[in-house]
Amino acid sequence: MDLNDIPIFLKVAEAGSFSAAARALGLPKATVSRRVARLEDAIGVRLIQRTTRSLSLTDAGRRYYRECSDALAALDEANLRTAETRQEPAGVVRLSLPADSGFLADVVGDFMAANPKIAMEIMLTDQHLNLVEEGIDVAIRAGQLADSSLVARKLAPSQRVFVASPGYLATAGTPETLADLARHDCVIFGPTIEGATWTVAGPDGPQVIPVRGRIAVNTMRFVVRAAVAGLGIALIPSPLAAREIRDGRLRTVLAAHAPSHGGLYAVYPSARHMPLAVRVFVDFVSERLAWLRTSDGADARPAATSAPARSDRQATRPRRRQVRQPAAQP
Question: Which structural domains are found in the chain, ordered by start?
Fold first, then answer.
């Protein structure tokens, strides 16, 4: 078998005709047809059904297309990573961060110090921007991700946790049940203290409970600061309060009722042919946030997959973009 015949078959499958594939490859149509036929003879299976007006992939052809496409994509990725070992990361990384991502400022600063030839353009917004239209290389997003064509790499879990300062708990007591929250001050995330509610994990699923407090703010970082200052109990995504919890400035309470909040993700348009500067940045952030994964008992698997992580290196490898489906369909 001539392995060079495989990319020609893939191009025919994607283009939907021998003529279109021949134009794209810069080869005579007869050569393209002959080499696909040679491939079929070599593997002993018909891959394409031909008629005078059209062609379509057989069932075996569709399977062969998918498997060969994945294999070539993996080979391209290996070639790219090998070539990158001879390069120094350089260029501009355009980054979108949540408005409440001040905890990443030190990470970004350390990354730039370690990579002096990389510049950063950072947009702080809670809007889920169109990365392609806005020319953004990578976005850090929190919570539950909607299905999309983007590639998502999970950086850290994001369970929401109930927290309060040791001083507040010493004065007001530690709540043991959700009903106990009625007698506690709470730090409200939102525009007003009136009618505030929290969605918590109840015995029969998510449960909405009313809460009261003396302070309401519209940024989570300020909520963390207010809780540290002893102004009440707060409900916070775990990455935002992880350092304060680790340092003892905040304590968790009501752990059985902490609702899931998805995770913290690096999101980018494609894992294939990713600029080296972007790849190095995502790897750097993932490494720096490894302590969050360890402290929460979570791993670093890609957000869109469920395969178990067999090693640290494999666990942090981003999922490849799905290969475009062929145009030639029966």
Answer: 5-84 (1.10.10.10), 91-158+262-315 (3.40.190.10), 160-257 (3.40.190.290)
HEC readout, the chain: CCCCHHHHHHHHHHHCCHHHHHHHHCCCHHHHHHHHHHHHHHHCCCCEEECCCCEEECHHHHHHHHHHHHHHHHHHHHHHHHHHCCCCCCEEEEEEECCCCHHHHHHHHHHHHHCCCEEEEEEECCCCCCHHHHCCCEEEEEECCCCCCCEEEEEEECCEEEEECHHHHHHHCCCCCHHHHHHCCEEEECCCCCCCEEEEEECCEEEEEECCCCEEECCHHHHHHHHHCCCCEEEEEHHHHHHHHHCCCCEEECHHHCCCCCEEEEEECCCCCCCHHHHHHHHHHHHHCHHHHHHCCCCCCECCCCCCCCCHHHHCCCCCCCCCCCCCCC
The model's pTM is: 0.52
| Residues 233-244 pLDDT 10s | 999 888 788 889
**pLDDT of 286 over the 80 cut:** yes
